[in-house]
Amino acid sequence: MSDEISRTKVPPYLRVASEGIVLSLHVQPKSSRTAFAGLHGSSLKLKVHPPPADGAANKACQQFLAKQFKVPKSSVVLKSGASAREKVFLIKGISLKKALPQLP
Prior knowledge:
Helices cover 22% and strands 34% of the residues. The protein has helices at 3-7, 56-69, 96-99; strands at 14-16, 20-28, 35-40, 43-47, 76-80, 86-92.
């Protein structure tokens, strides 16, 4: 573990990977707006406006995360949970130091 990571308190929903960071999200579709909404267990809760039909909620998550972390949409990859509320996203090309200020 690098010195940067060991000195920084890393939230339970965040992991550092070789390509970037990995976020564990609990997604709540059909919300009035798309935004982070605190914790849900050990996951970060993300409310999204679109319903979960035809991957619309997944696409909204991808767009929101890309904007939040200032990376291209192609850098935000859904690793697991395509049809579940519990999702894991890889955000490529971002360091822990740059990611932490963008999180609640």
